[in-house]
Structure formats: C-alpha cells, structure tokens
Design a protein that fits this description.
By secondary structure, the chain is an alpha/beta fold. Helix 6 packs across helix 9 and helix 9 packs parallel to helix 10. The longest helix is centred in the middle third of the chain and has 17 residues. The mean pLDDT is 97.
C-alpha cells in the first residue's frame, strides 16, 4: 500500500506517554502509527527532525469576530492565526441576539455556511442561551451538532452589551433542566461571576475617582459564589456543568467540594490565567472578564491542572484591537489568544516544568475532543482519526510582537515576551497548512465539525 504522506523521525505524544514513531496518512486520515522502518511507501515524506508530534490543538474557547469584526473576515483571520499557532480545531462560542438559534446558525448563508467559506481549520459551534424560546431549541440544536450551551451569568443590566440580553436565574434553571432532559452529549457552560457585587464596587471606585485594577472590581469570591449557586441548580436538574475560564486559586477546591456533593462539574482555564497578572500587563489592554489576578492565583490553577481538577484548556480568544481599549472603564473586555495558546503553554508550562508535555496534550487535545464529542475523530494520533497534527520544536525561541502575529487584532498581552517552544508545522486532515511560520493553507478548507451523539 502506498499512502499520501508519512511523518518520520518524530516523537509522538499522547496523554499516556511519548514514543518514537512515524505516522502514515491517507485520504486525510491516520492509517498507521509505527516505527519508521515499517511504515508504508508514501508520495510525500515529512521529516520531523526529532521534534515532538502532537495531535492538533483544539482551542476549546473562542469568540470569533468579537467585538465588532465582520464575521467572514474574522473567520479568515482568526483561523489563519490558529494555523500559525498549531490549532487545528476551534470551538466557537457564538453570541447571537434573541431569535431562533437554529436559523441564525444553520440557515442558508448563516454561521455554518460563512465559516465553511472562510475558515482555514475545522470549527465546532456552541450556542449561548438568552430566552425561553432559545431554550426550547436545545434538542434540535443537539441534533445539529451543538453540545455546549453557554450562560452569560454576569452580563446583566449595563453589562449586557448587544447582542447579549440580560439573563436571570430562571433562564439558568430552565436552561439546565432542558439540557439535562435532552441527554448527552449536551452540557451547560457557565461564566461564573457575580455582577451585582461588581456594580457596587464600580460605583464606589468611580465616585472616589480612585485608580484601580480590574480585579479590584471583581474579587475572587465573585467567581466562587456563582459556582455554588449553579452547582445547586446542576444538582437538582441533573445537568452537567462546564466552568469556563477559571481564574481564581480557590476554584479547584470548590469544584472538588461540589463534585463530592454530587454535582457533575468540570473546569477549564486559559493560558492568560496561568501566566499573566495585574502586574505584568497594561491595566487597560489587559482588561478581560474574569480579570487577570495574581501569581498566587496562577499557581493555584497550575496546581489544579496537575491534580486533574482542571481538565480542559481554551484561549478565550476575543480579538479586541487598540481602538476598543481607549480608557479603563469604557474599554471592551478581551484580547486575542488563539495563536499564542500553544506557544505560551509550551514555554511557560512544559519548558518551565509546571506540567508535562503529556499533560498538555491531555488538556488541550484529548479532553477537549472528549468533552465536545469530537473524539476519536479529533484530539488523538490514532488509526482512523483525522490527520490533524502539529510538530513542535521545544527549543525554538521567538520574541512575540503584534506585528509578527496573524491576528485581526493589533496588540497582544505577550508583547516582547521571549517564548521558548513553537509549532513548526500544522496539518489539518492530512493537508499541511503551515510550515516554518509560512501559511500554506487556504480559507474555505475548514469544515463545521458537529458533536457526535451517542
């Protein structure tokens, strides 16, 4: 048998270990993982040069087009940036106005069609729920491949910027109930922050005219309280809950307590909450919800990963530009993160000994694929899986500058950082889309990847 491509002289990484092996690919699928000498003949040979061969990274948390970019352009630029950073699948958490989500996501010319005309990589879609009418669509959305349904708990009152509308505990309860009734793989995603406490902090600080950091307006307990509240709703409805972008050191221990009480809860964090603090990023450019906190919070989250409490990783990519960040109180929250996702984790996590490379593959590939019902198609280098692969050089040093990145945004919170560890080749379904920093893929190659129902 002759295959399309083989990757040889690499070290294949899985959650269970690292082993020298080659990978054979035919028709976009992995057909063999074996010693180089027994691989079949191939039309194309990729020399890994002794580098590490990982499953393509699955970024479990992206907001394509946030806050106001045209969606087609955003899919092109955000997925081009993903390719450059070794991400082969992203999970797009879409915020849409009240109205039918089925129509807005899957109608002719709507979100699915737009992404398939513009994306460089594969994309899974997730929906945000705001109304009872949208909640009623959960079963149908599940049939169409939507697994996760997000609840924007802190975006109420003046914080509910369009197209968001305020939700209350009634929406959370009835949403959880409907998700539980619809069965697997559906689950609820919660942005855990108490906005009512924030409003009072903001009023006080603005009246005093005091310069504060964003975390001063949203102390750690503001994240813990909604975990307890939503944990109770999850318990009484039987709804699985996924905590997005955990940022506080107390978070992992609270997840353990809630699990012990019968709550089906897992947690995600992001590279910025592991590496950035209020002290190493500009207070306006680094404004994000939840806020960047302290080194103690960073370390508490690393520990949560090592202990297996935090099991998933996403970038919370939200590509604000400098034009959105003029002044502290009015600055739009968020910043781009998909392109630096893997390099930062390699540099600050693996190369600094905070986690192993196997653990990184577990939380950024395998677990994300499992949670979003994409396994075994994605997230693993196994026979029959899509040939989504990234080769990384753990010794490659790159000084990060916004000018060199591919974002639609024009700044990065990692400006000037020297990162050690960088992807040198990205492959999506057997096609090389990035090689040595050069984008060789094309927009429109990416496909919508629905969750696989049991």
């Amino acid at each position: 048998m002759t295959v399309d491509t083989i990757i040889k002289n690499g070290k294949v990484v899985s959650p269970g270990g690292i082993f020298p092996a080659g990978v054979a690919i035919k028709d976009g699928k992995i057909v063999a993982v074996a010693s180089d000498e027994i691989l079949p003949e191939a039309e194309k040979i990729i020399e890994a040069g002794g580098n590490y061969v990982l499953p393509g990274i699955i970024d479990a948390h992206c907001h394509v087009g946030w806050p106001d970019w045209p969606v087609p352009e955003a899919y092109r630029k955000d997925t081009e940036a993903a390719v450059a950073g070794g991400v082969t699948t992203l999970v797009d958490r879409i915020t849409l106005p009240p109205g039918s989500l089925v129509e807005q996501l899957f109608g002719t010319g709507k979100r699915k069609d737009v992404l398939e005309k513009n994306a460089y990589i594969d994309v899974a879609l997730q929906a945000c729920l705001f109304t009872l009418e949208q909640i009623e669509e959960v079963p149908k959305l599940g049939e169409l491949g939507i697994a996760g349904f997000k609840f924007y708990i802190p975006y109420r009152g003046p914080e509910a910027v369009p197209p968001m509308v305020s939700i209350d505990d009634g929406i959370i309860y009835f949403g959880f109930k409907k998700i539980a009734e619809s069965g697997g793989p559906a689950f609820a995603q919660i942005h855990a922050e108490n906005i009512e406490v924030f409003f009072k902090f903001k009023d006080i600080f603005m009246k005093e005219g005091k310069e504060v950091d964003w975390l001063d307006t949203r102390p750690n307990f503001c994240e813990i309280e909604p975990l307890i509240r939503c944990g109770y709703f999850a318990k009484i409805t039987g709804c699985p809950v996924y905590v997005v972008h955990m940022s506080v050191k107390e978070g992992p221990s609270m997840v353990v307590k809630l699990r012990a009480d019968g709550v089906n809860m897992i947690a995600e964090t992001c590279p910025q909450y592991l590496t950035l603090t209020k002290d190493n990023v500009d207070r306006v450019l680094g404004k994000v919800n939840p806020p960047l906190r302290t080194e103690e919070d960073n370390e508490g989250l690393w520990q949560g990963i090592r202990q297996g409490i935090i099991t998933n990783l996403g970038s919370d990519h939200a590509p604000c530009a400098l034009k959105h960040k003029k002044e502290f109180w009015s600055a739009v929250v968020g910043f781009a993160g998909v392109e630096t996702f893997l390099p930062v984790m390699l540099s600050e996590g693996v190369n600094k000994g905070k986690i192993s490379l196997e653990k990184l593959v577990e939380i950024a590939c395998y677990n994300n694929a499992k949670q979003y019902a994409l396994l075994p198609r994605k997230g693993t280098i196994s026979v029959g899986s899509d040939a989504d692969i990234v080769i990384v050089d753990l010794n490659k040093k790159v000084k990060v500058t916004a000018e060199k990145l591919h974002y639609i945004s024009d700044f990065t919170p990692y400006e000037g950082w020297e990162i050690t560890g960088w992807p040198v080749l990205t492959m999506v379904r057997g096609k090389v889309v990035m090689e040595e920093g050069k984008i060789v893929g094309e927009p429109g190659y990416g496909k919508y990847i629905p969750a696989q129902r049991a």
